[in-house]
Amino acid sequence: MDVAQRDRRYLARAEAAEGVQVARSEGSVIFDHHGKRYVDFTAGWCVGNLGWGNEEILAAVRGFDGPAYVHPDYTFRGWSELAEALAEITPGTLTKCYRATGGSEAVEIAMQVAMAATGRQGFISLAGCYHGNTIGARSLAGDRGTYPNLLPHCRQVQPPLDGRAADRVERLLKGEKVAAFIMEPVVCNLGVLIPTAEFMARVREACRRHGTLFVMDEVATGFGRTGRLFASEHFGLDPDVLCMAKAITAGYAPMGATLVTKAVADAAGVDFYSTYGWHPLSVAAALANLKYWRRHGAALLANVAARGDTFRARLGGMKFAEQASVRVKGLAIGVEFGEDSDYASRLGERCREAGLLVSAEKENLLTMFPALTIEPEVVREGLDILERCL
Ligand SMILES: Cc1ncc(COP(=O)(O)O)c(C=O)c1O
Questions:
Q1: Which pLDDT tens digit goes with each residue over 35-47?
Q2: pLDDT in tens, 129-142
Q3: Is 94 helix (H, G, I), strand (E, B) or coil?
Q4: What is the pLDDT of residue 273?
Q5: DSSP string covering 246-263
Q6: What is the chain's alpha carbon radius of gyration, rounded to the nearest angstrom?
Q7: DSSP state of 27
């Protein structure tokens, strides 16, 4: 039985896995088991922000000689160091950190903390959002088709994220007891929707007025994706709660974190325990990632800005077979086609065959999240492939 056959037989998936059998990855390039080369415009979906094979993080993981495991109730130097470092780099006054194993758990913690801190049950999020795969996170998405018994009291606001959407959020906040409003500050999961500054400012302020926690899910946007270390910075936001995961270790180990203000932590008064939350090996990877950012952050963000400009210019000039809306924020890139179109998934498949990896979120929505280190010639190569596949 080959790998694909074994995968189909033993892995629980709704659909057979996409074609690429990854053998090796290097920078912004992936090689499959036949040695076929792919330009990688996905970086594992906002995970490998430093490109594949970062020597410094690899060295930290391979040379790790700390404890095999630490009981969550004990103390560990790596935990306090990492929590302090995250408090320093995040926007606003987030100083208390819950340890998680990934993004879904980080969001679940945010929801539990919000309920405990406010004594309320309700949530507001964006229609069509994705915040993970727990029942809590799926409740935010509000899709009751497959899971009819989601949490009640979850309301969704329809984009576009402008003044009228802010009106709707304000009405909901007034009418109901809402524990938290949650969204991605740049919505990667909706094809890089960029809220207006008015929407963000008004919703943040309304949350403050109504005693509702303002939660920024930076699981995808965190660690430079949109051109700032955290996308909340684009709007000068000071969230009550911020979730992160994915690129926190640049892909070398699983980890998530939920940062809250001291006031929120005190009001919630809850603990969150997870056996593998902040495993020492993951902590070593995250600390190495932060060290890399401290030394190379300015250069990384400069590269994001320059390469983002290339994507914007080239995609803006491409002759897509259907009407396209191109949205670029740093190296978060979305191309949306008409609602009934399946052009994005067809295009995604064609690109893969031609040696370029992009994501088709939905049939009509293409996203690209290349490594922040991607070189100009690799951007050009990938965009040339995309253009040939149109
Ligand atoms: C914005 C956002 N939140 C949460 C999650 C869930 O993260 P994880 O897959 O690590 O559980 C994701 C995953 O794609 C995400 O994009």
A1: 999 999 999 999 9
A2: 999 999 999 999 99
A3: strand
A4: 87
A5: GGGGTTSS--EEEEEEHH
A6: 21
A7: B
CB atoms within 10 A of CB 256: 28
Among protein residues, the one with the nearest Cα to ligand 1's atom 5 is 132
Q: Which residues contact 173 (CB under 8 A, 6 or more apart)?
A: 124, 181, 206, 207, 209, 210, 212
- The answer to pTM > 0.90 is yes
Nearest residue (by CA) to ligand 1, atom 10, is 103
Residues lining ligand 1, judged by CB closer than 6 Å? 102-104, 107, 130-132, 184, 189, 217, 219-220, 245
- Strands 37-40 vs 29-32: parallel, antiparallel or unpaired: antiparallel
Question: What SS3 state is found at 156?
Answer: strand
Q: Where are the alpha helices (DSSP H) in the chain?
A: 3-10, 43-46, 55-62, 77-89, 103-118, 135-141, 163-175, 197-210, 262-268, 280-316, 343-354, 376-389
Q: Hey, what domains does the chain have and what are their CATH numbers?
A: 3-54+296-389 (3.90.1150.10), 60-291 (3.40.640.10)
Question: Over the range 357-377, which residues count as b (16 or more CB within 10 Å of their CB) and which as e?
Answer: bbbbbbebbbbbbbbbbbeee
Tokens of 334: 């979305």
Q: Name residue 140's amino acid.
A: L
Confidence label for 325 from pLDDT (cuts 50, 70 and 90): very high
Residue nearest to atom 4 of ligand 1 (CA): 131
What is the spatial distance between Cα 30 and Cα 27, in angstroms, rounded to a whole number? 8
